[in-house]
Structures are given as structure tokens and as C-alpha cells.
Amino acid sequence: MSSFIIQPNGGVFNITDFLKNNTISLHDEKAIDALMDAIGSARCVLLGEASHGTHEYYTWRTELSKRLIEEKGFSFIAVEGDWPDCYRVNRYIKHYPESGESAHEVLHAFNRWPTWMWANWEVVALAEWLYAHNRNLPANKKVGFYGLDVYSLWESLASIINYLEKVDPAAAETAKKAWVCFEPYIEEGSDYARATVDQWVPASCETEVMDMLKEVLYKMPQYNTDHEAVMNTGQNAHVAVNAERYYRAMIQSGPGSWNIRDTHMMETLERLMEFHEPAGKAIVWEHNTHIGDARATSMRQYGMVNVGQLVRERYGVKNVFTIGFSSYEGHVIAGHKWDDVMRSMPVPPAKPGSWEHLLHQAGRYDRLMLMTPEVMKVLGDREFEHRAIGVVYHPDNEVGNYVPSLMPRRYDAFLYLDETSALHPLHIQPDGHQIPETFPFGV
């Protein structure tokens, strides 16, 4: 895409000049104040990322989350992570008994690939800040940390059984039936997925997990234990049911498994909002592909929905504020294939004509763009290629790493970072054996 567009009246429109004139440098102390003003009274603020392995995405989201919590009273952070792992972080930051000696200890235990997404020094810094913030607050005012994702089938089943054995041994037997059904495929969702479509010996554990969910939900009001522990058990039952559906769908082509996953994440967010009523307010950390409204992207033509679309539909656009993130070039933590060793990889300069390339041409500095009515009027119907990097990444072959998007319709604001660096995983020794800096430059 050229930086110049011929208007119907014959005039020439320069996109890069427009971008330059409608963005605020992040080095301007007024930039984040302007963002906070734009967020206003929204109940759900969605913070994106263009990769799962970029240092600056985590540090900027941390700084924005702190301000939302301190200035606007947000109740919890919900992330693209497994419920059981993140619930352990939640217990730590809320000072539950026997919940760990440090954020490093709790997060270092994350062992599902890609481990670096949450087991990193940047999240350690966030968790320790939340721990300090919560120290002197009453239980119902402590800020939480939860996982929205659907992958933790076996971990959720184990958590349910462990809890029910203490409070309801009869119900525990129902959960154990689900465990026995899944046991041949222990921790291998792909094996279970293939077994469900085997033409000779079809297998499904759908009945077992549904029976467990019904029993848990029916008996939950009777459990006279910690309120959040009861909620945790109910959520793990929902995870088990939807994970079973997800793994059955993943073997098939089409948008089925994606939609099951994002619908599960939205339903989890709704349950968390209800748990934190009457004034529940959520900060969501997920990849841009989940938080940027799918209806404003090429995902729509494939029948895909996402959290960004569903949350707007559920709570209304005035109660939701979505912030996308991206960069022009730098480095990222990723793998060359699933279950590969994590490594720092170069992120090459963005594709000519892409959203990131145009912002780079408009000036080589970090900036904030608010999707104002003027921006919507000028760019709302113009499609741009917008980079998305996954946990599996090949820098030398970026074909398919760009999502055609109507940017002002996809996000309410956008943070552009010209050059970014790789995340700092806990399972890789930091350079110089020192904990890395975990705050963005200029904040």
C-alpha cells in the first residue's frame, strides 16, 4: 500500500502524515493521561499484544494495569493462561495460607509449553506489585489474577478431585470417572482428539465430564468452605467440559475449535465479573487476535468469533475499551515448532504497506493512537495488513503473519512501539545473572 491515496475529488491523501498528526508520543507524559481519560468508566479494558514473547508488551500492560487498579478500581486481571496455574498466582497475591514464598517460586512452576508466556520476570514484577498492593486490603477488595484459557483438562480434573475428596467424597467419585475415561490420553489432547474420530474404536468422555459438571454445580451452594475456593472448583469443572469439546473439535477443519476456545474465555470472563459484583471491573491480557474485534478483520469471513467481539456484544461498546499493541522490528521469544526449545529470534522490519510500516514511516518513535471520530471517519473503512506473531515463529517466512484489519473498528486505541526486545523467561538465565529491568522506558 502506498502512503498516498487519490481521493474521489482528485486530491491526494497522505496516510503517514495523517498518522503522525493523530498520534501522541509515549514519551509525552500526557499520553497515558489521555488514554485514561478515553477509557473513562469502561468496565472491561482489553490489553493486547502482537506476540507472546515481547518484553515491552508486558511492561506497558503492567503500567497500564497499575493505573487502572489504582485510579479506576479495577477488580482483577484475566489472562490468556491456564486456570489452575493462574489461580495459584491469585492465591499468592491475595496472601492465602501456604500459597508460596515468592512470585518467582509460583511462576517458575508453570510447565505447559509455551512456559515463557507467564513464567517470566516481567510477570514476576507484576505479581509482586499485586502482592504488595493487596497486603492491607480486606478480602473482598483484593485484586485477583485469573486464567481464561481452556487447555488445562487434566490439571483441572486433578484440582476438582483434590477439593471434592475433602468436602464431598461422593461427588469426588463422579469426577474420578471422568479422570479414568481420559487416563489413556493423559496430558495429550491430540491423542484424545484422534481417538474421538477413530472409525474403528470411537471414544468420547463427553458424558463423564457433563455428569461431573452437573453434580458440582448442583452441590456448590452446599459447600461451606472459602467462597473463592468453591468458585475455583466450579470453574475447573467448566474448563474440563469445554476442554473436552475443544479437543474433539481440534482434529476437524474449520473454525470450530477456535470458537469453542474464545467462547469459553468469554464465558469465564462473565463468571469472573459476576463473582466480583456489584462493581466488577476486568483487565484482560490476550493476544491481539483475541482482543481485537474479529468483525473488523478477515477472521469474520471464516466464521470466527473472538473475545473482543463477544465482550462488546455482551457489555456494550461504551463499557469496553480495547487497546492493540504492535511494533516495527526487534526480537521475540518463540519456538520454530510446537514444544520446541524457546529462543530469542529477530523480528524483521514490517512488511511494506502494513500498518506497522506506515507508522514507522510516520516517525521512528513510540506513540499512542486514540481511535477518535476523526480517525474513524478517515480510516474506518480502509483495510491494513496488521502483523501477528504466534508462539511458533519463522522470521524468514512471515507469509500469513498479517491479518487484514479495519484498525479503528478493531481497537479503541493503539500503542505502537518502533523497536522491541525479547521477553525474559524464568527458565533462561538472565544476561549477566541479573534480574532484567521490568519497567518501560520513560515511565
Search tags:
alpha/beta, 9-stranded mixed β-sheet, 13 strands, 443 residues, 43% helix, 2 domains
Question: How would you portray this structure in words?
Answer:
- The protein has 443 residues and is an alpha/beta fold.
- It folds into two domains: 1-147 and 282-443, EreA/ChaN-like  fold, CATH 3.40.1660; 150-280.
- 43% of the residues lie in helices and 14% in strands.
- It has helices spanning 15-21, 30-39, 55-72, 83-93, 103-108, 121-134, 153-167, 169-182, 189-196, 206-219, 227-250, 256-275, 288-291, 307-315, 355-361, 373-379, 407-410, and strands at 4-6, 12-14, 24-25, 44-47, 76-79, 144-147, 282-285, 320-334, 343-347, 367-370, 384-387, 402-405, 413-420.
- Strands 3, 4, 5, 6, 7, 8, 9, 10 and 13 form a nine-stranded mixed beta sheet that branches. A two-stranded antiparallel sheet has the order 1-2. The protein has a two-stranded antiparallel sheet with strand order 11-12.
- Helix 10 (206-219) packs antiparallel against helix 11.
- The longest helix is centred in the middle third of the chain and has 24 residues, at 227-250.
- It is globular and about 70 Å long.
- The relative contact order is 0.18.
